[in-house]
Structure to design on (83 residues):
């Protein structure tokens, strides 16, 4: 049975490999985006202008739902008053 230390070493090694693959994939995606932007003559200003009206988040004036305090008892013993 493997020891805790050996498993942690394997986890660290795999995390480093995963980070390297993520960085490689990210750079490939960024290069593809740059190629598409150059092909269509787009700049970051064009993207910002197009996405300007699509902001995420709550609508202005929307109020958060109030959380109820303690729940109200549904049943009560009329003799003892216990809930």
């Amino acid at each position: 049975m493997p020891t805790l230390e050996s498993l942690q070493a394997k986890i660290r090694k795999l995390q480093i490999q995963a980070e390297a693959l993520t960085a490689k994939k990210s750079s490939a995606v960024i290069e593809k985006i740059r190629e598409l932007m150059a092909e269509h003559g787009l700049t970051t200003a064009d993207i910002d202008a197009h996405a300007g009206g699509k902001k995420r988040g709550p609508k202005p004036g929307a109020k958060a739902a109030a959380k109820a305090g303690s729940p109200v008892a549904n049943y009560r013993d009329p003799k003892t008053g216990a809930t």
Observations:
- The mean pLDDT is 85.
